[in-house]
Amino acid sequence: MSDVVQYAVDAGIATITFDSPANRNAISAALVEQLSDRLVAVRDDDAVRAVVLTHTGGTFCAGADLSEAGRARPDVMIDLMRSILELPKPVIGRIDGHVRAGGFGFVGACDLVAAGPKSTFALTEARIGVAPAMISLTVLPRLTSRAASRYFLTGEKFDAATAQDIGLITAAVTETAELDEIVTAWCADLRKGSPQGLAASKALTTATTLREFDRDAVRLVEQSATLFASDEARAGMTAFLTKQPPPWVTS
Length: 251
What we know:
With 251 residues, this protein is an alpha/beta fold. The chain has helices at 29-44, 76-86, 103-109, 136-139, 145-154, 160-165, 176-191, 195-228, 231-241; strands spanning 5-10, 13-18, 50-55, 59-61, 91-95, 98-100, 112-115, 120-122, 158-159, 171-172. It has a single domain (1-175, 195-251), classed as 2-enoyl-CoA Hydratase, Chain A, domain 1.
């Protein structure tokens, strides 16, 4: 199996890079396995103070790999999001590309997120007959209620500045160089924190999300599995993969 998730450590900062641009860094079985392994490596390495989660190519993460939809475990996204939330080290999302569907789950789980000028966001699940069920566990705590209603329902695309305004990300920047500067500055600040202090401080910020996560996760996994197995979703995914309009679209 080739590496679709790269891993490197420098000066106390681990960088985890989605590196499968051919399928738009979709959440494939390979990505799930390798990301899980990288997060364990971060947790177990006392020299690592914080993590930068980033990507190659023009897409940060396109969500589920629909070509594997029939074979994927429905709860893998739950495990990955929880691993990021409960990791006792801060996770910075560095994004300069498209974020779609399940990619939002990673964004919501990160502690700090900076997005550059190439970034776009869209929750398009309703357009293929499903819903952002599992990723709502990390996304809804970040958004205003009005923003959640708008973007969960319309599937419309929005930019980094809007993502910042509605609480999805921490900072939107207009230049890629500025994106690197802000991430570098955050890393420098995090290196000043003690491992114990960072872990305890992060736990305070994630406690409510984790309580609601554990309360709702099983129900949302079941809902997601039911939706994906439906005739409507199969028609929607087929239309997406063949670049045809789904049967419910009207002019």
